[in-house]
Design brief:
There is one protein chain. The chain has about 425 residues and is an alpha+beta fold. About 40% of the residues lie in helices and about 25% in strands. A six-stranded antiparallel beta sheet has the order 3-1-2-5-4-6. Strands 9-10-11-14-12-13 form a six-stranded mixed beta sheet. A hairpin with a 5-residue loop joins strand 7 and strand 8. The protein is globular, with a radius of gyration of 26 Å. The termini are far apart.
Length: about 425
């Protein structure tokens, strides 16, 4: 395989919007006044392509109106730092996936399994007063997500000697593929240890329920008839943990909650979803005639006029957006794009909507607990994810709201929604 590097950046006569935004972000969040920030996307190709093919690919990857393409390394004349942000080994690189498809279109064949494409972003800074510790902090806190991305910070002297390193985030550890049996015949401390060590995030009562299920004589008999072991496999345990996660199961909405109002009145709510959301919707439906279908299909449908009904779907992406603001939100918005298309005979998507509950964007950084993003970083990443997930798919984001309260510092709420139209008749 031959390594080829393709740089895609703005042409000199055009303004580098991304670079300007990063410069403003650094000044606003960190208080560092820096000169200039130039940005570029980099594609690292490990393929059997010829030089001519690589040049054709480079032309296909750029926007000829506002971007230039360089095959190889272009070292700026004067700079103080280059920050390289790529994906960690094993993390899905969607930009590289799209590039693979574009390359296949250009060369007329699919890339082989042992041919690889990786993407990264490089920021070239003119900032003579920034120390390495400053740059590394800026990169980690403002530009990258250490959960899924790698960061390299280079000075001009290092680049002059060694050039810009190749971006090749391959998984080098040999996979230990096998199925493990999980012994659940344990006391409470042992069950909690399994949940903690395997990062299942399951409570003690949930672990006990799983243990009791696999200990049931009928279950054991059925598993034996099917050729399964009495003990569950690690795969089964992971599936249960995922299915019972807060993000998928919405256990808080389903919990029994004792609520006390400001006057001291107390009541027990057996499931917020059943008692408030679903119940109130059906109560409203008893007095109106425009609720067509709710809580039955992939999205709700209400009457609009004599030709079309409106389809509306909203979902939350709270925890994913807390961990990866951009990725969590873009996954949320394309998820609710999907559901109206799967409602009835299929709705035509019209517009995206959104709502965020966040801590103050002016929160003092020192008060943000370790392991959490600053609420301003979450807000900007989430909103960019909602915009990109919709607009770049041809579904504009049109209306939303934002609510700020310090209680959302630990966990934001991110609502993503899509409105579509559904014909009331098709072919009569």
């Amino acid at each position: 395989m031959t390594y080829h590097r393709i740089e895609i950046g703005p042409i000199e006569s055009r303004y580098d919007i991304r670079g300007r935004n990063v410069r403003n972000t650094i000044a606003q969040y960190a208080g560092h006044e820096i000169g200039r920030v130039c940005s570029r996307d980099v594609y690292s190709l490990y393929t059997t392509l010829s030089v001519d093919d690589v040049n054709r690919v480079a032309e296909a990857l750029r926007n000829p109106v506002i971007q230039k393409a360089v095959v190889g390394q272009s070292i700026p004349d004067a700079f103080d730092w280059i920050i390289i942000i790529g994906y960690l080994p094993g993390v899905t690189d969607n930009l590289a996936r799209t590039a693979r498809q574009a390359i296949a279109d250009v060369i007329g064949r699919r890339l082989l399994d042992n041919e690889h494409v990786y993407s990264s972003v490089e920021y070239v800074l003119t900032a003579p007063n920034l120390k390495r510790s400053d740059v590394e902090t800026l990169a980690a806190d403002l530009l990258a997500n250490r959960l899924i991305q790698s960061v390299v910070c280079l000075r001009p002297d290092a680049v002059a000697v060694n050039g810009i390193p190749e971006n090749c985030p391959t998984v080098t550890v040999a996979p230990n593929i096998g199925v493990a049996m999980v012994d659940l015949n344990l006391d409470d401390d042992g069950l909690l240890s399994i949940s903690r060590d395997r990062e299942l995030a399951l409570r003690l009562d949930e672990m006990q329920a799983i243990r009791d299920y696999y200990a049931d004589a009928t279950v054991r008999s059925r598993r034996n008839e099917s050729g399964l072991s009495a003990a569950p496999t690690d795969v089964e345990i992971e599936v249960l943990a995922q299915t019972w996660s807060e993000h998928c199961k919405h256990k808080i909405f389903d919990a029994v909650i004792t609520y006390q109002d400001e006057k001291g009145n107390s009541e027990v709510i057996d499931g917020l979803f059943r008692s408030c959301i679903r119940k109130s919707t059906f109560e409203i439906g008893e007095s109106i005639d425009w609720l067509k279908t709710v809580f039955n299909d992939n999205a709700g449908v209400i009457a609009f006029n004599d030709k079309v009904d409106l389809v509306y779907k909203v979902e939350t992406h709270n925890s994913p957006s807390a961990l990866d603001p951009y990725g969590g939100a873009i996954t949320g918005i394309v998820g609710v794009n999907r559901d109206p298309m799967g409602t009835g005979k299929g709705a035509e998507l019209l517009v995206n909507v959104w709502g965020y509950c966040l801590a103050s964007p002016f929160t003092e950084p020192s008060t943000v607990p370790d392991g959490l993003f600053h609420p301003r970083r979450i807000r900007d990443g989430v909103h960019q994810g909602v915009i990109d997930g919709g607009n770049q798919s041809g579904i504009p984001y049109g209306y939303g709201w934002e609510y700020f309260d310090d209680r959302f510092l630990g966990k934001p709420l991110v609502f993503c929604g899509t409105v579509g139209t559904l014909p009331r008749e098709i072919d009569g």
